[in-house]
Write a structure and sequence with these properties.
The protein is mainly alpha-helical and 78 residues long. The protein has one domain (2-76). 83% of the residues lie in helices and 0% in strands. Helix 1 (2-33) packs parallel to helix 4. The longest helix has 32 residues, at 2-33.
């Protein structure tokens, strides 16, 4: 039983580490490409929709690409 718990914790830690590394990579890509990447992310965001699928698609897009454009907009102010 304890072995399974350790494997679950290790798997969850690995998934979180992969997600953070994806965020860092996309953040650097967004900083390098600038508005090209921002425009690409904006294509996957549907604002003010009632469709459940489009809301889910927007959530996934923001979950994957959300940190990069956020950092880009904060750095572009300087």
């Amino acid at each position: 039983m304890m072995n399974n718990v350790g494997e679950i914790i290790e798997t969850v830690t690995l998934i979180i580490a992969l997600w953070f590394s994806l965020q860092v990579g996309l953040s650097f890509l967004t900083i390098l490409l600038g508005t090209i990447m921002i425009d690409y992310v904006e294509l996957g965001i549907f604002r003010h929709t009632n469709n459940l699928f489009l809301k889910f698609f927007t959530f996934v897009t923001l979950l994957i690409f959300g940190l990069g454009p956020f950092i880009y907009t904060k750095l572009s102010k300087f």
